[in-house]
Amino acid sequence: MNVTPSQHSWCCCAVLTTLTAAYLRSDEFWGAQLFPSSVLSLSYCLSVSPSPPVSPSFPALDCNLPSSQENTGVPHSHRPEKNITDLEKEAGREIETVTDREPQRDWEMEQVGGRSFMEVISEKYSPENFPYRRGPGMGIVVPAGPQGSPMKDRLNLPSILVLNSCCITSAGDEGEIAAFCAHVCELDLSDNKLEDWHEISKIVSSIPHLYFLNLTTNPLSQAVLDPSCSKALVRVRRLVLNNTKVSWETLHTLLAEMPQLEQLFLCLNGYDTVSHSSVRCSSLRLLHITDNNLQDWSEVCKVGAMFPCLDTLVMANNHLSSIRGSEETLSRLFPCLHHINLHNSGLNSWGDIEKLNLFPKLDEVRLKGIPLLQNYTNTERRNLIIARLPSVTMLNGSDVTDGEREDAERFFIRHYLDFPEEELPCRYHELVTKYGKLAPLAEVDLRPRCHAKVEVHCEGKVEIVSIRLDQTVSGLKKRLRSVVQLSPNSMRLYYIDKELSCPFGPEEMKYSTRALHSYSIKDGDEILVVPKSRPQSTPPAPSSSSSSSTPLSPSL
Questions:
Q1: Residue 125 contacts residue 151 (beta carbons within 8 Å)
Q2: By CB distance 3.0 to 4.6 Å, which of 113, 283, 410, 412 could disulfide with 387?
Q3: Which residues form the Ubiquitin-like domain (predicted)?
Q4: What is the pLDDT of residue 532?
């Protein structure tokens, strides 16, 4: 029977109202004064059910307590009890109760025998555990299965399936996978127990639009791949095989049947060599092969031969000690390479860095944590690398601007000014031709002065005093108390700039909280101390002929 949304909403409200009214008559309400979990669970079940069975009619609702029970005086314990079944009958139909039902998360619990792919998605995306559509995807309606079947009436599967750590060991029924996953385009099966390529191929071949497959941390080291199974991955464009210990022979079989593969991840597989292959994967643009044990550049050459159109090569955390090969060999090795990552490699020669210039299209480089750069500051590292790699426009994730490049190249010239001729790199002569032979930069200390030696004049006496410029006028008066034998409140101070004293004369230091460095005091300037008992109109000029008989030793 077809039920409109308005009829469905009215039916749900009618059922809940009837159950609530009936429950108000029961002893359980008078004892607990709370709605039981069964009623609340029922309301949730009815609210999310897509198409519940509805009875065409309902009994009249009476929410008032019978008068016969209000004044009977019968204890509540002696009143007849009504169980859940009685309440359902009052609603006019049989209703499946959900009193003790709790969502089961069995797919997160590791099973000794493993589970199938179909079992996991049937449970994870069932209406009880995944009641609403989340993100792109669609709900799939399948016929009701036999009694006890794990098949649900409706599954809400997104187009991106994440089934990591579900203890999956097999595919399950391929027909069911095809029915449920026809719209899926990305599949994450990481950290499961898939160790048979035949089971993987059954899953992938049943998902026609799949282009991303993640098999990270599945035990595939001993798995043998039949060429017929590898054909199931023909449409996959991004393949993640991190920490699977998959062999190079298996990879060669896969690559031969994956003409659309664009991104390949082979991290944490313990590779110390690369197996040579006659198969060329010209579609691959990005290769992550980090955290392996590759040490010899000849292994990298095999990678270049296998993936001739590679755009991005990420080889961080390997143990490459050098980049070897002639100019002709290196220029042909990666003709399309734009980005290379050599973080934490063992490169220890500037010659290795300069060989990166032989890759004709390289413009982005990542070089951190290599032994060669350990003795330089961060600024020196960046300047020296930029100057040696003229084609690089991005270094360690930061853009190299034209201004930064010019500063780096000028720094490079000055860095090698004192090196002997035989130790000068070729890049030095190229930059000298461009900028000329630059003189060393003048060392200018722009830090504010902390001390100054001044002449303190007081009533014809002169003392050479070293004063701190970070103190205030009030602090200076306290320091001069022992020099001029006057209390701070009994003295006036005048500052005399020897360079500007003729046109401006002495400047009274009248503000006790003003810092001395704001007067721009220099060595050789004068401080005139005048007792306050003397008239303030015209301060006496210091006597230039007088000199200190005993210089003041401590700094003030």
A1: no
A2: 412
A3: 467-531
A4: 85
State the 10-residue block means of pLDDT for the chain, 556 residues long. 52 50 45 38 38 38 40 42 46 39 43 81 77 48 43 66 96 93 95 96 96 97 91 96 96 95 98 92 97 96 96 96 92 96 94 96 96 93 97 97 96 93 93 89 73 89 89 90 88 86 78 90 90 64 45 41
Report yes or no on 287 lying in a domain: no
Q: Please tell me the predicted confidence (pLDDT) of residue 536.
A: 55
pLDDT of res. 114: 87
Exposure string for 516-534, b = 16+ CB within 10 A, e = fewer:
beebebeeebbbbbbeeee
What pLDDT does residue 298 have? 94
Same domain, 180 and 264: yes
Q: Partners of 463 in the beta sheet? A: 456
pLDDT for residue 407: 96
CA nearest 182: which of 114, 266, 121?
121
Residue 205 tokens, joined: 């071949």
Locate 160 and state its tokens: 């991106």
Structural domain contains residue 515: yes
Residue 221 lies in domain: 107-269
pTM of the model: 0.62
Give yes or no for a contact between 466 and 451, defined as CB atoms under 8 angstroms apart. yes
Tokens of 14: 């009618």
Task: Kindly give the residue spans of alpha helices, DSSP state H, lying in 1-146.
Answer: 5-24, 27-32, 37-48, 67-70, 84-90, 117-124
Q: Chain centroid to CA 165: how far? A: 22
Structure tokens at 416: 């090698």
CB of 456 closer than 8 Å to CB of 465 = yes
Q: Which helix (H) or strand (E) holds 137?
A: strand 137-141
Contacts of 42 (CB under 8 A, 6+ apart): 15, 16, 19, 95, 97, 98
Check residue 42 and give its pLDDT.
37
How many domains does the chain fold into? 3
Q: The tokens of 122 are what?
A: 């049937």
Burial (0-12, 13-18, 19+ Cβ within 10 Å), 214? buried
What pLDDT sits at residue 25?
46
List of residues 6+ apart from 475 with CB closer than 8 A: none
Q: Is 29 contained in some domain?
A: yes
Residue 296 DSSP SS3: coil
Q: What angle do CA 156, 159, 160 make, to 5 degrees?
A: 110
Q: What integer pLDDT is reported at residue 238 of this predicted model?
A: 98
Choosing from 55, 90, 125, the residue where a domain stops is 90
Same domain, 75 and 187: no
